[in-house]
Specification:
The complex is a heterodimer of chains A (312) and B (288).
Chain A (H helix, E strand, L loop, with lengths): L8 H11 L5 H39 L1 H5 L12 H32 L4 H14 L3 H18 L9 H25 L3 H9 L4 H30 L2 H5 L13 H6 L5 H9 L5 H31 L4
Chain B lengths: L2 H12 L9 H11 L2 E12 L2 E12 L3 E5 L6 H8 L9 E9 L2 E2 L7 H7 E4 L10 H11 L6 H11 L3 H4 L12 H13 L5 E5 L7 H14 L4 E5 L3 H7 L2 E7 L5 E8 H6 L4 H7 L5
Parallel strand pairs in B: 3-8, 3-9, 6-7, 7-8
Antiparallel strand pairs in B: 1-2, 1-4, 4-5, 9-10
The chains are: A mainly alpha (312), B alpha/beta (288).
Chain lengths: 312, 288
């Protein structure tokens, strides 16, 4: 039939199919819906950023580094966020030191060592449940356990110190760290473990030399994002002893760890409630500092992930 | 000429041997019996939970020879292979009954350390699984964890040479093992397996993901390695078993889905003059 003037039935069918049926309206509407969602999401973020930047940036222009290095004060003209920054950094370090080893080792135990039985599954489910507990509940835990514990030991300031705060935030993000680390470990292919066992490695050697390095990027990303969340928390520390209002820190490591403390989100919360109009701009300026810190940690997480990302 | 004799002759040509008549079987059996044994399986039953995957296997694997395990999918070849270096221990529900004797010791005795077993009996897997490390570190991993003291550079070079990979990778020992081609990766895994100086190497369908050229390279390599090592290979590829192995164990499964040994013997015998009709049907491609 080929070459004849009358195209065959098949040829006609193929030509018609190739010519198409006009625009795919459902597909277009779906694509627009997707576009609309991302625009709405971004719009909220952009609005928030512009709003805060327009209010807060003048404070930095006016006072420069002075705002970052000054202490808390009821006088808006010389109030600054140095205690909040120091508190947030110290609490970040303490949380990292306590939470990361504890969370990652727990995840390694659950994924690599624990037998797959009813108890393990029960524990796994409950860790997931803990991740969903409201943060204020962890604040109550911090108050009734950690603060009370330090008070009982006779620490100054009724036990309301930054260590109790760090322990509270550790309890808050520990489930998240465990879950993300466990997921990163689970993503390591079985064939890699088999390869290790196949050359006569023990479980400890397979875990420490093959599985953990392979899961490193996922674990780091998860834990750093969890830390960023902890640094933004206000509610638990409100109960667990961070200072609302003004205090002066005498300096020195001992007073840093056992004296009164505050963190950046607390300062934001405190200033936002103040009646004086001048504190509006200061609040926004403190928010910018908080955003920069969060952004710093998120960037760090991405960089570490890219650096350690391995193909299998 | 009947279809059967044609198949028979094709096979004979393929494996490069003369047709062997029934009388020669006895001679081959004697030859096999005379070989020293690397590992003996005695009434081995393998279970996953309540499911019996392999039943009552009693075979001797001859030393410094290549033994192929063949049989239809799901008959327990890989399970059987993995029981020999206690790889199945990693599956919590797996259980072994019977004895696997290696240098006279039952590998499943209470006092035996499975880690030590795997150092003596290396393994190459179906899908090449180099560590996400450099080529050099892939080889050095095993010796390092076993606390081997010696010239590591020399050891790495020696293993890569024995695995016929040295010429291709000598200039990029520091590059990731994962950057190599599929066939090179599998040879890297073989080099990694021999780096701990095992007695025996288990290969679980090592060529199933490779092209014919790489497959041939691996088979040539196996032929060289048997001088030093005992090799057991699981393969789905009948030609490969015929080409590359000295002995063949044919497994099939019953209605209860438990694999068992139908017939074992020198490869030439299994492929040209099997005793069991099932073996003949399988090797001539009538089922499986």
């Amino acid at each position: 039939m080929a070459g004849s003037s009358n195209p065959s039935v098949t040829t006609v069918a193929v030509q018609r199919a190739l010519a198409g049926h006009g625009p795919d309206w459902r597909g277009i509407i779906f694509a627009l819906l997707l576009l609309g969602s991302i625009v709405a999401t971004l719009a909220i973020l952009v609005f928030l950023l512009i709003d805060q930047l327009s209010r807060g940036l003048p404070v930095y222009q006016e006072r420069g580094l002075d705002f970052l290095t000054s202490g808390l004060s009821s006088n808006p003209a010389n109030a600054g966020i140095s205690q909040g920054i120091v508190g947030s950094i110290v609490i970040g370090i303490l949380v990292s030191l306590i939470c990361f080893p504890l969370g990652i080792l727990t995840a390694v135990y659950l994924e690599e060592y624990a037998p797959d039985n009813r108890l393990t599954r029960f524990i796994n489910i409950n860790i997931r449940n803990l991740a969903g507990v409201p943060s204020i509940v962890y604040g109550l835990l911090g108050l009734t356990v950690f603060v009370a514990f330090f008070a009982f030991l006779g620490f100054p300031n009724n036990g309301r110190n930054i260590i109790a705060g760090a322990l509270t935030l550790t309890a808050l993000i520990l489930p998240i760290v465990i879950i993300t680390s466990a997921e990163a470990l689970r993503a390591v292919p079985r064939t890699l473990r088999e390869g290790g066992y196949g050359v006569g490695a023990s479980r400890w050697q397979v875990t420490s030399r093959l599985v953990l390095p392979a899961a490193r990027s996922g674990i780091l990303t998860g834990t750093i994002l969890a830390l960023a969340r902890a640094l933004g928390e206000t509610a638990p520390l409100l109960l667990a002893g961070a200072i609302l209002g003004t205090f002066s820190s005498p300096g020195g490591l001992e007073s840093l760890l056992t004296g009164p403390y505050t963190v950046l989100p607390m300062t934001v919360y405190d200033w936002a409630r103040k009646p004086q109009e001048e504190f509006r701009a200061l609040t926004s300026a403190a928010i910018i500092a908080l955003l920069v810190i969060t952004l710093f940690f998120n960037t760090l997480a991405i960089l570490l992930r890219n650096r350690y990302q391995k193909q299998w | 000429m009947t279809a059967e004799t044609q198949t028979q002759q094709t096979l004979d040509v393929r494996i490069g041997r003369e047709a062997i008549d029934a009388g020669a079987n006895t001679a081959l059996d004697e030859e096999m019996a005379a070989l020293p044994t690397a590992v003996s399986l005695r009434n081995v039953h393998l279970y996953y939970g309540a499911f019996r995957a392999v039943k009552d296997v009693t075979i001797d694997i001859p030393k410094n020879r290549i033994t192929a395990l063949i049989g239809p999918s799901g008959c327990g070849k890989s399970t059987l292979l993995r029981s020999i270096n206690r790889m199945n221990d990693l599956i919590p529900s797996a259980r072994v009954e019977g004895e696997i004797l290696f240098h006279g010791e039952n590998l499943y005795a209470d006092y035996v350390d499975p880690v030590e077993v795997r150092r003596r009996i290396g393994m190459v897997f179906q899908k090449a699984n180099p560590f996400p490390k450099s080529t050099y570190d892939n080889i050095a991993f095993g010796p390092r964890i076993t606390g081997w003291k010696g010239d590591m550079d020399q050891l790495v070079e020696g293993c890569l040479r024995r695995a016929a990979l040295w010429n291709e990778v000598q200039d990029k020992l520091g590059d990731s093992g994962l950057a190599l081609s599929g066939g090179q990766q599998q040879r890297l895994c073989i080099a990694r397996a021999i780096a701990t100086e095992p007695d025996m190497i288990l290969m679980d369908e090592p060529c199933s993901a490779l092209d014919p050229r790489s497959t041939l390279q691996i088979e040539e390599l196996m032929a060289e390695l048997k001088e030093k090592y005992t090799i057991i290979i699981v393969t789905h590829n009948m030609q490969q078993a015929a080409r590359a192995s000295d002995f063949t164990v044919f497994l099939n499964m019953d209605d209860d889905r438990a694999g068992y040994v139908v017939e074992e013997g020198p490869t030439a015998q299994i492929f040209t003059n099997p005793r069991n009709q099932m073996t003949e049907d399988y090797v001539s491609g009538r089922f499986g």
